[in-house]
Design goal:
The complex is a heterodimer of chains A (140) and B (166).
Chain A: E1 8-9, H1 15-19, E2 24-28, E3 31-36, H2 51-70, E4 74-83, E5 93-102, E6 106-114, E7 119-129
Antiparallel strand pairs in A: 1-2, 2-3, 3-5, 4-7, 5-6, 6-7
Chain B: E1 14-15, H1 27-30, E2 35-37, E3 48-52, H2 66-84, E4 93-100, E5 109-119, E6 123-132, E7 135-145
Antiparallel strand pairs in B: 1-2, 2-3, 3-5, 4-7, 5-6, 6-7
The chains are: A alpha+beta (140), B alpha+beta (166).
């Protein structure tokens, strides 16, 4: 698999993320990019990348954008997605976004998922911010 | 797909055969088993898509992963919405909005139902709810494209098996 420079694999993945990975991340300062290589297991009946897979991926990427921008862990409250063009199996897909605003409880973020040729998915999300320093309760 | 707990689908639910003989798993089979029920026309159960929440569908906090919820909702919007509208072809999703209302846990039986809002010549508008028992866990709205002509059809699909979508 040809992974672009600067991306590292998210090895701490569990459950759904692990089952549908590997996912990769690149961090520069407080900006973040997520990427993955769609395989046959990510395809739908037409042989293009499944909308549910891309939804899951951009959701996680937007959550990561919030975390890197303001150092707060978060969970998704609301996500709006526009499917712009199909994505092909075997074409590296990348997602990034920007924080539009936030208060103590909720952050708004906008992002996009794109392939080598064009934007695939546009996303807009509201994320509930967890209390700072609150450890994520991880169940194995 | 290994299941840590038995799916035990309630009566009337059948495993959806997304693979239809294809050797390689696609996303719909890879994420885990999905079940469909087709109840009486015009009733709440006219089309229901369901899953038993397994560990490999979960997030690190032990709840059903939002990505899995969205995957099921996406399928309910296209497969279920298409079924309610009497369309037997692949409906690509154009737009979806999700509100994450409540979590679901490993072992929960999650059901998804679609409500037809409007059908135009080229678009299908649906609302979708995922529920665990009486509790709503996800509210979604979907716009799917109705392709002109026959689109990608499901002529090879058995009548008893819901057409795969998205």
């Amino acid at each position: 698999m040809d992974i672009p420079a600067g991306f590292r694999e998210l090895t701490e993945a569990t459950g759904f993320t692990a089952a549908n990975g590997p996912w990769f991340e690149k961090v520069e300062g407080n900006r973040v990019w997520r990427g993955f290589m769609p395989g046959p297991q990510h395809a739908n009946a037409l042989g293009i990348v499944h909308g549910g897979m891309m939804a899951a991926f951009i959701d996680a990427a937007l959550g990561s954008v919030v975390y890197r921008a303001i150092d707060r862990r978060c969970v998704t409250l609301k996500l709006t997605l526009d499917y712009l063009t199909p994505a092909r199996i075997g074409d590296w897909l990348e997602a990034t976004g920007e924080l539009l605003g936030h208060d103590e409880h909720v952050a708004q973020v906008r992002g996009r998922l794109y392939g080598p040729r064009h934007d695939v998915l546009a996303g807009l999300g509201d994320f509930a911010l967890l209390r700072p320093g609150r450890p994520l309760k991880v169940r194995s | 797909m290994s299941s840590e707990i038995p799916d035990n689908p309630p009566e009337g639910f059948k495993l959806v055969d997304f693979a239809r003989g294809r050797p390689e798993p696609t996303f719909n089979t890879h994420v885990g088993n999905m079940y469909a029920k087709r109840g009486e026309k015009g009733t709440r159960d006219e089309f229901v898509l369901a899953i038993r929440v397994q560990q490999n569908m979960c997030n690190p906090a032990g709840g059903l992963h939002g990505g899995m919820m969205m995957t099921v909702a996406d399928l309910v919007g296209t497969m279920g919405g298409g079924y309610l509208a009497g369309l037997r072809k692949f409906l690509p999703t154009v737009s979806m909005t999700f509100d994450f209302v409540a979590p679901a846990r490993v072992g929960d039986w999650v059901e998804g139902r679609a409500e037809l809002i409007r059908q135009t010549r080229t678009l299908l508008f649906t609302n979708i709810y995922l529920t665990v028992g009486d509790q709503k866990i996800l509210r979604a709205s979907s716009i799917a494209k109705i392709s002109s002509g026959d689109g990608t059809g499901y002529t090879k699909t058995e009548a008893s098996v819901p057409a795969a979508a998205t």
